[in-house]
């Protein structure tokens, strides 16, 4: 039923998707500053508009009126295109996000249509593709600035995308297995009885961690950490180009929240208590209200994380992605695929729990045995290293002075007697014999 709308209605729905993202961003910026101020016992913005609600609009006007500086050593074409490349793909994902049911159309200026711009058989893959393209803007911004810290920030952003896109895709695969489709509207329809957040809780948790790392938000905001990279990839940017990077970050937050709502939280469907006693909750324009509330709750989760958790180290962040999220998501996907295959073969719930639970218990026992033997070998190695005499430390072994590592000590420095002010002495040269002492002994 998509593709039959008149051109003016398609244009109107495209403008609506853009306006929804922009208005949500403007509200989220003020909301974030207000919530973080409340958590830190501050007031927050309260000057522009009622309750400071126009603060983000004032910030946007201020950034547009500031001086636009282009650094001398920058690649100017790429330097200017980078914020545009980062901002545009963030809006494209809303093309396949359903704000309402496709079969219950609403009337817009007398024309019946669905509350969705379009739908694709591989709509979720389209979302992943647009999210992956947006990272090019950050990488190109760091490279084209001609500075060291922006380059490091861009490299960090690309490493985060590679690490966490894998876990995110594996969490989506479990949803595909249960829904039987990659279409966003079909995935929402598959949750009419029970949300996938209840059926696939591990996939939801993995996606939540991955979406925070994907959007470079605290506590995973290493590409722009001011503690060690000044400002990261956007250090050399100012005025409207800097505003585009900020806009891209917040639009990405809205996008990943909308995707989480669509795939795991029932999409536009009303929450459980409301949908049971109100038949019209999922009809008409009401689904848009439930969708917006769920997106705002996920945005509050973003803000809550920023106000409570400190920034982690980059090695800890990479270890979490490669050694925790990806293995857990792969094992979880295998379990989900096994359960779906057994359900398709008409196995009973008791048999499924018995077989799958037995496999999980067996894996846990094997891992326990491996850990016991590994710890025993490690303790033996540590005891042997403690019993062995320490190796002498040579601070000039590499040709230049290096500090000692933990457990190493510098060799003792021989004591030298005081000399007269006019007598030269080379550093490290052996002490000359004491002639006066020899004369006294004679």
UniProtKB/TrEMBL annotation:
GO molecular function, one term: NADH dehydrogenase (quinone) (non-electrogenic) activity
Transmembrane portions of the chain: 6-31, 77-100, 120-143, 164-188, 194-213, 242-268, 288-308, 320-340, 352-373
Pfam families (alphabetical): NADHdh
Keyword Signal applies: no
EC identifiers of the protein: 7.1.1.-
Annotated localization: Cell membrane; Membrane
Membrane topology recorded in Swiss-Prot or TrEMBL: Multi-pass membrane protein
Region annotation Disordered: where it falls in the sequence: 383-442
Record key words, sorted: Cell membrane, Membrane, NAD, Oxidoreductase, Quinone, Translocase, Transmembrane, Transmembrane helix, Ubiquinone
Keyword check for Repeat: no
Chemical reaction(s) catalysed: a quinone + NADH + 5 H(+)(in) = a quinol + NAD(+) + 4 H(+)(out)
SUBUNIT field: NDH-1 is composed of 14 different subunits. Subunits NuoA, H, J, K, L, M, N constitute the membrane sector of the complex.
Identification of the protein by name: NADH-quinone oxidoreductase subunit H
Species annotation: Streptomyces fildesensis
């Amino acid at each position: 039923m998509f593709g039959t709308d008149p051109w003016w209605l398609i244009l109107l729905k495209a403008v609506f998707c853009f306006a929804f993202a922009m208005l949500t961003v403007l509200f989220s910026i003020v909301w974030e500053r207000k919530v973080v101020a409340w958590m830190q016992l501050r007031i927050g913005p309260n000057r522009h508009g009622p309750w400071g609600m126009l603060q983000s609009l004032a910030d946007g006007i201020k950034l547009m009126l500031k001086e636009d500086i282009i650094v001398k050593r920058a690649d100017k074409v790429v330097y200017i295109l980078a914020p545009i490349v980062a901002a545009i793909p963030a809006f494209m994902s809303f093309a396949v996000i359903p704000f309402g049911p496709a079969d219950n159309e609403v009337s817009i200026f007398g024309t019946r249509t669905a509350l969705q711009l379009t739908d694709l058989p591989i709509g979720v893959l389209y979302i992943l593709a647009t999210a992956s393209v947006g990272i090019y803007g950050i990488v190109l911004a760091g490279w084209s600035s001609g500075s060291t810290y922006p380059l490091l920030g861009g490299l960090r952003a690309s490493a985060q995308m590679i690490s966490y896109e894998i876990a995110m895709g594996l969490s989506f695969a479990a949803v595909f297995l249960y829904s039987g489709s990659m279409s966003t509207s079909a995935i929402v329809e598959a949750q009419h009885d029970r949300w996938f957040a209840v059926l696939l809780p591990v996939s939801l948790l993995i996606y939540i961690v991955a979406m925070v790392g994907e959007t470079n938000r605290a506590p995973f905001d290493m590409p722009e950490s001011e503690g060690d990279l000044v400002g990261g990839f956007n250090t050399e940017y100012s005025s409207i180009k800097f505003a585009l990077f900020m806009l891209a970050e917040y639009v990405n937050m809205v996008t990943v929240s909308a995707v989480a709502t669509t795939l795991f939280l029932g999409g536009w469907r009303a929450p459980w208590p409301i949908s049971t006693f109100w038949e019209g909750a999922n009809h008409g324009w009401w689904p848009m209200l439930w969708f917006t509330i769920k997106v705002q709750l996920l945005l509050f989760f973003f803000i809550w994380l920023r106000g409570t958790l400190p920034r982690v180290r980059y090695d800890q962040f990479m270890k979490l992605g490669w050694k925790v999220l990806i293995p857990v998501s792969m094992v979880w996907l295998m379990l989900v695929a096994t359960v779906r295959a057994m359900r398709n073969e008409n196995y009973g719930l008791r048999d499924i729990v018995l077989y799958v639970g037995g496999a999980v218990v067996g894996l846990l026992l094997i891992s326990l045995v491996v850990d016991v033997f590994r710890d025993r070998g490690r303790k033996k190695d540590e005891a042997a290293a403690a019993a062995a005499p320490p190796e002498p430390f040579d601070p000039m072994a590499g040709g230049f002075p290096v500090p000692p590592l933990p457990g190493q000590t510098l060799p003792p420095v021989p004591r030298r007697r005081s000399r007269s002010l006019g007598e030269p002495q080379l550093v490290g040269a052996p002490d000359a014999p004491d002639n006066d002492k020899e004369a006294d002994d004679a």
